[in-house]
Amino acid sequence: MWKVVYMAQNKETADHINELLTEEGFLIKIKPVYKNVSEEDNCYEILVPQAEVQEVHNILMEHGF
Questions:
Q1: What per-residue confidence (pLDDT) applies to 49?
Q2: Percent of the chain beyond pLDDT 70?
């Protein structure tokens, strides 16, 4: 089961978190919050497998997210 670990306010932040977590070896999904909003104006959910939530939270906090 996938769990939301972060809500990115823009695509740039979502992509940055994607790179960070992918480099650390985590599976990640990025899902736009709104369907009829442009990519630049949308918010994004960052999702990871439930078993990795605590570890991902720790990494995000270490990097100021």
A1: 97
A2: 100
